[in-house]
Amino acid sequence: SSVSSGINAEYGGMYDDGQDIWGGENIDLSFRVWLCGGQQWMSPCSKVAHVFRPKHPYTFGNDNFNVVMKNYKRNALVWFDKEQLDFFYRWKPQAIPVDAGDVSERLAFNKKNNCRNFNYFLTDVWPELPSERDCLATGEIKGTDNICLDNAASSDKHGQQLGCYGCHSMGNNQFWMYKKDRRIMGLLYVFEVLGTKPGSTVNLVWADLKSDKQIFDYNSQTGRLVHRVTGLCVDRDDTGTGVIVDTCNSNKLTQKWYFQYTYPDRPL
């Protein structure tokens, strides 16, 4: 591969031998280059494609999920500082009990080669990457009856309506970042309201820093999430599973929402 020739000997071998089968190895290779003195070159005229086969030519045993989660956890243990590791466990709490194996050899490699810490990646390599330090609150956005805002079962389709389902405390599709710019972001998309009338849907779209239709003001005393442009409150639709904005009503419990994690040094 284009990565292999440059990383093979100089940056600690091709792969982390403790990772299994598939998943996460590309992240480890990338962090190793960025944080341990390597370079990544852009070739403007090149064409790169990734074609997925209809099925894997190998098996994951009986537990595909834990194989991939183990690899992700190894990456987190090797590269993240405590701040980022805590955030990883909040986003993926199911990784906590997974046995990631011994990472001491990988950590020793980092120390021997004076690899930079992950803060360098966030400040110098990819400062635009959303991170916990950019947030006023994170985690579940929970209603009074244990219903959480949800990205519609992780379908991750641009423009889809935001959903709400029973809180599962497993992060992922119910993990949100309420950023300092008052946008609410999941893994890929932010909340947006295109309509102007009560009953308009809340949809998941790419962040647009020029759009005020993606701004939501939160009142921790009332629990209201208010869409700034329309002045309407985040609520549920008549089905109980779709999310809309509606006329603010202090008597409606379905307009009260509470964030799972807040930060004393960053008041809402």
- Series of H and E elements: HHHHHHEEEEEEEEEEEE
How many DSSP H or I helices? 6
Overall mean pLDDT score? 88
Task: Please provide the count of β strands.
Answer: 12
Q: Can you tell me the residue ranges where pLDDT is under 50 for at least 5 consecutive residues?
A: 1-7
Spatial order of strands in the largest sheet: 5-4-1-12
How far is the N terminus from the C terminus? 47 Å
Oligomer: single chain
Strand content: 15-25%
Category by helix and strand content: alpha+beta
**How many whole angstroms does the radius of gyration measure?**
21 Å
Reported for the largest beta sheet, the result is:
4 strands, antiparallel
Helix content range of the residues, please? 10-25%
Shape: elongated
What's the helix and strand layout?
Elements: H1 4-7, H2 25-35, H3 64-79, H4 82-91, H5 104-112, H6 118-125, E1 135-142, E2 147-150, E3 163-166, E4 176-179, E5 184-185, E6 190-193, E7 202-205, E8 216-219, E9 224-227, E10 233-236, E11 243-246, E12 258-262
Antiparallel strand pairs: 1-4, 1-12, 2-3, 4-5, 6-7, 8-9, 10-11
Helix pairs in contact: 2-3
